[in-house]
């Protein structure tokens, strides 16, 4: 029991402003990259054409964003750090049609409460600038200060006064790469605006204001990727989709190279990520994420982008028709990408290693990490803005520190080898790898697994098992679709021992399995009998098919008539029956395999999306033998 005097004390108290702001900061400011996002958005809202982002220690020690935008006068500076102080919203009605990136008036107040900040600004046309400081929520007077037109906001020592938050900060290289990711997404979204990022005084990223979308992708991710992209362009009513998709071989484990821009803003929306993955279905290996840069313009009434203060997720109204439209058009472009696994890229990965070991290798263009196109020749040494007053210093870009970060967190842009070929490969032009020969031998069978043969401009290596598997799968799938599965009945049914629960699992689906050519019957307790399998299967493996079925049905929990289950069952059946590595093939076997493969939509990957063939062009050979 508490005594009376304690009870008289009110337990509820209104929090002070600084604590309130720190709590609000928890919503929007997680790490240095959030500072970068908020400050760069403010610069863009201020109408900047040049944005400079200076970082130290991954942004933990310093984030300074300088712009040449409209600037802030004395009255603005007095209010800038106040919570809910914004120039972008006046009335509730304004909320319905917000054109700016910010509008909550929360960011600066939050940032000011968890770091040491300085704003210097000069309004366009004014003769003098001003400055205000804010140290963990304690604000200075606004004073006159010499400053160029525009605004510079400096944030030092993030979370210096909230140690609990500081613990979530990761290694410098991780924080730097997150900051870069933010700027790079912004830079791709905003053509017409130049961006420069420095880290510890060294330039780590830049795009010039004049660069278009593709040029920005090239600068950010290198020529090899940029040259391999296929354009997407489609409209339906007020919905427009434009951008680029990359060949499946560029896929990676994360979505770092998957960028969606919705009505001009970078978004990181789970649904859109899923749509793109779905569009690549059948072309990607398990667990891989495709690479694409896509811009979606929608009637703003059909989408809510302000769900969360970090604004990365969106909410679509009327999703279904939109996703249908996206899927169809993405898939069409993906089909036009170069599905082959060129030997050249293997050579390049070797070269990349060499470059990393010895950045000064004379004959290989030095790849400047995440900073650029990879071709020093393609980068004019121009600085985007004289006003920022520093020069580009290209030799510094190869510094070991930046390089190390680059090696861990980014793929180094490729030496500019792809550019000659890239001109046709970049557009949706003819597939440069498409065989134009008559498929006649001679063939060299290596280890009874790989077939090698000369093609008009080089040679290719075919994985016979992978190719045959693709073929069998495609035929099976067609048969099922057309309801024409031919069944080969076994003279003597093959008996497979299964557990009681698996028996139950299978026995519930005997009819639908029969429709895809798998004829099973229960044969007493704990035994299944396989009576027939699709005639397409060359070396049928009844027991293997039953085991795979149990695994797939158990894992997916779906009936065999579900489309993706059918596909998986057919994959596994095809895999088990295909020409195994180790089969000796005659010349005519090989030729007929290749001829049939040519008719497929894509014969470049097996159903598990491993490559079926790898091609070395003459150019690759010349490079390998140092003829060029
Ligand atoms: P919001 O962007 O949501 O309005 P912020 O806290 O980010 O809120 O910024 C508060 C206000 O400060 C903005 O509305 C804007 O008027 C001003 N401001 C912030 N950054 C800049 C800048 N770089 N240039 C000009 N004005 C700025
Ligand atoms: Mg803002």
Polypeptide structure, described:
The chain is α+β, with helices and mostly antiparallel strands and 628 residues long. It is 36% helix and 20% strand. It is built from 22 helices and 24 strands. The strands form five sheets. Strands 1, 2, 3, 4, 5, 6, 7, 8 and 9 form a nine-stranded mixed sheet that branches. Strands 10-11-14-12-13 form a five-stranded mixed sheet, sandwiched between helices. A hairpin with a 2-residue loop joins strand 19 and strand 20. Helix 3 packs parallel to helix 7, helix 10 crosses helix 11 and helix 16 packs across helix 21. The longest helix is centred in the N-terminal third of the chain and has 18 residues. About 12% of the residues have low confidence. The structure holds adenosine-5'-diphosphate (ADP) and magnesium ion. The site of adenosine-5'-diphosphate (ADP) has 24 residues, from helix 3, helix 4 and helix 5. Magnesium ion binds next to helix 3.
The distinct ligands, each listed once, are:
adenosine-5'-diphosphate, magnesium ion
Query: What Rg, in angstroms, do the CA atoms define?
Result: 30 Å
Describe the sheet with the most strands: 9 strands, mixed
The helix tally amounts to 22
Give the end-to-end Cα distance, rounded to a whole number of Å. 89 Å
Strand content: 15-25%
Uncertain runs: 361-435
Q: How would you state the average pLDDT, rounded? A: 80
Helix content bin: 25-40%
In total, the number of strands is 24
**Structural class estimated from helices and strands:** alpha+beta
Overall shape: it is: elongated
């Amino acid at each position: 029991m508490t005594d009376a005097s304690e009870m008289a004390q009110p337990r509820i108290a209104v929090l002070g402003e600084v604590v309130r702001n720190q709590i609000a900061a928890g919503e929007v400011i997680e790490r240095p990259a959030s500072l970068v996002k908020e400050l760069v958005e403010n610069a863009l809202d201020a109408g900047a054409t040049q944005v400079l982002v200076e970082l130290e220690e991954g942004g933990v020690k310093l984030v300074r964003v300088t712009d040449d935008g409209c600037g802030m006068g004395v009255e603005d500076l007095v209010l800038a750090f106040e919570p809910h102080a914004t120039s972008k919203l006046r009335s509730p009605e304004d909320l319905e049609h917000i054109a700016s990136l910010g509008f909550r008036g929360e960011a600066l107040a939050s940032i000011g409460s968890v770091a040491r900040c300085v704003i210097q600004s000069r309004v366009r046309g004014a003769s003098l600038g001003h400055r205000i400081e804010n140290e963990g929520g304690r604000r200075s007077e606004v004073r006159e200060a010499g400053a160029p037109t525009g605004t510079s906001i400096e944030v030092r020592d993030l979370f210096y006064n909230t140690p609990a938050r500081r613990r979530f900060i990761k290694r410098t290289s991780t924080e730097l790469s997150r900051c870069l990711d933010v700027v790079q997404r912004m830079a791709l979204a905003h053509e017409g605006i130049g961006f420069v990022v420095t880290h510890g005084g060294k330039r780590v990223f830049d795009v010039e204001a004049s660069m278009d979308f593709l040029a920005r992708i090239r600068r950010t991710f290198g020529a090899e990727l940029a040259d391999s992209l296929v354009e997407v362009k489609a409209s339906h009513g007020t919905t427009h989709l434009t951008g680029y998709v990359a060949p499946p071989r560029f896929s990676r484990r994360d979505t770092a190279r998957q960028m969606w821009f919705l009505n001009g803003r970078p978004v990181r929306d789970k649904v859109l990520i899923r749509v793109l993955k779905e569009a690549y279905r059948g072309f990607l290996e398990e667990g891989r994420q495709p690479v694409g840069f896509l811009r979606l313009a929608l009637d703003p009434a059909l989408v809510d982008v302000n769900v969360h203060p970090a604004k990365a997720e969106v909410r679509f109204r009327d999703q279904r028709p939109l996703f249908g439209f996206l899927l169809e058009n993405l898939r069409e472009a993906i089909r036009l990408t170069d599905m082959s696994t060129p030997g050249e890229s293997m050579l390049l990965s070797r070269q990349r290693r060499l470059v990393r070991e010895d950045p000064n290798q004379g004959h290989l263009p030095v790849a400047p990490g995440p900073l650029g196109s990879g071709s020093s020749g393609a980068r004019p040494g121009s600085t985007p803005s004289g006003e920022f007053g520093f020069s580009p210093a290209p030799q510094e870009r190869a510094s070991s520190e930046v390089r190390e970060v680059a090696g861990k967190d980014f793929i180094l842009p490729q030496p500019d080898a792809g550019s000659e070929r890239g001109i046709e490969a970049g557009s949706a032009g003819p597939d440069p790898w498409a065989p134009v020969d008559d498929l006649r031998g001679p063939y060299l069978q290596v280890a009874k697994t790989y077939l090698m043969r000369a093609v008009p401009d080089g040679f290719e290596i075919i994985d016979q098992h992978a190719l045959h598997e693709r073929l069998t799968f495609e035929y099976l799938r067609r048969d099922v679709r057309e309801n024409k599965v031919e069944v080969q009945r076994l003279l003597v049914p093959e008996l497979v021992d299964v557990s009681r629960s698996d028996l139950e699992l299978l026995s519930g689906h005997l009819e639908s399995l029969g429709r895809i050519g798998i004829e099973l019957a229960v044969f007493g307790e704990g035994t299944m009998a396989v009576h027939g399998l699709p005639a397409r299967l060359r070396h049928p493996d009844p027991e293997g098919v039953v085991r795979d079925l149990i695994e797939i049905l158990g894992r997916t929990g779906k009936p065999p008539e579900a489309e993706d289950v059918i596909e998986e069952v057919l994959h596994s059946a095809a895999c088990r029956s295909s020409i195994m590595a180790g089969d000796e093939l005659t010349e005519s076997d090989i030729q007929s395999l290749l001829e049939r493969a040519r008719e497929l939509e894509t014969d470049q990957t097996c159903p598990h999306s491993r490559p079926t063939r790898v091609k070395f062009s003459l150019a690759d050979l010349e490079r390998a033998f140092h003829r060029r």
